[in-house]
């Protein structure tokens, strides 16, 4: 078996990592290792632990080791679309984090460490598309939160401490079995309006997302089949109407 293949996924070298550093519009340095086929956290990137942003999204990571604590300058961390079922306690040491995306993983309630509440500067936290049955009331200590994504989980209640966060502007709890939202799920219109459009390649979608997209496409095709076709009523555009030249020439015809 060739080196770097198989269960360990793609092997990332320090040279590859250095070539993956980009400077964002805000001037921060971002280490972008998304969509690289990584299954194990690459230890070589510890040499680049002074970056402000780290993107490890759309890989095959099952675990984030405690050495993540070496990235003390991190303000932006994207881990969405991996296979994580828990976070390390060391996540709480990243005191400068303002953005944390954990969407589309396998996180359970037990997989959320108490140390997550130490991220007091966090403004955006996305926990959507996971396996959460409850939300720790201690998340109510993240008083700088502006956006919180909890959609597509198994939540039956949202703690008041979370609902009442002082700076919270956007709370997405769609597609959870929450009693208070049961009546709101009735369809309002037969035509679904698009709120957001994301263009991604089919190979980048997870199984559940691909199934959802295919279902939406089938529904669209049904609507197209129901669209009325052209009228079968005969049309004679070349015929002249009564208010035409025929009327203007009728005196001439009578004379003839």
TrEMBL record:
Pfam families linked to this entry: LRR_8
Region span, Disordered: 223-256
Record's keyword terms, sorted: Leucine-rich repeat, Repeat
GO cellular component labels: cytoplasm
InterPro entries per the UniProt record, alphabetical: Leu-rich_rpt (IPR001611), Leu-rich_rpt_typical-subtyp (IPR003591), LRR_dom_sf (IPR032675), LRR_domain-containing (IPR050216)
Annotated PROSITE patterns: LRR
SUPFAM superfamilies named in the record: L domain-like
Polar residues: bias regions: 229-247
PANTHER family found in the cross-reference section: LEUCINE-RICH REPEAT-CONTAINING PROTEIN 18-LIKE, PTHR48051
Protein name: LRC18 protein
Species annotation: Callaeas wilsoni
Gene: Lrrc18
């Amino acid at each position: 078996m060739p080196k770097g293949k198989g269960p360990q996924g793609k092997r990332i070298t320090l040279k590859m990592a250095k070539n993956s550093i980009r400077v964002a519009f805000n001037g921060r340095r971002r280490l972008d290792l998304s969509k690289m086929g990584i299954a194990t956290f690459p230890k070589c990137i510890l040499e680049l632990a002074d970056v402000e942003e780290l993107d490890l999204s759309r890989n095959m990571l099952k675990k984030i080791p405690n050495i993540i604590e070496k990235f003390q300058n991190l303000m932006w961390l994207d881990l969405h679309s991996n296979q994580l079922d828990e976070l390390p306690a060391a996540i709480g040491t990243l005191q400068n984090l303002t953005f944390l995306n954990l969407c589309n993983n396998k996180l359970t309630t037990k997989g959320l460490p108490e140390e997550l509440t130490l991220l007091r500067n966090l403004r955006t936290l996305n926990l959507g598309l996971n396996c959460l049955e409850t939300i720790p009331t201690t998340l109510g200590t993240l008083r700088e939160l502006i956006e919180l994504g909890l959609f597509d989980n198994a939540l039956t209640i949202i703690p008041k401490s979370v609902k009442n966060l002082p700076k919270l502007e956007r709370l997405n709890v769609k597609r959870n079995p929450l009693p208070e939202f049961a009546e709101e799920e009735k369809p309002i219109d037969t035509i679904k309006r698009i709120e957001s459009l994301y263009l991604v390649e089919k190979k980048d979608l997870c199984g559940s997302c691909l199934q959802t997209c295919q279902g939406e496409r089938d529904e669209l095709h049904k609507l197209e089949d129901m669209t009325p076709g052209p009228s079968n009523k005969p049309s004679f555009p070349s015929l002249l109407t009564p208010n035409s030249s025929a009327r203007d020439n009728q005196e001439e015809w009578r004379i003839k």
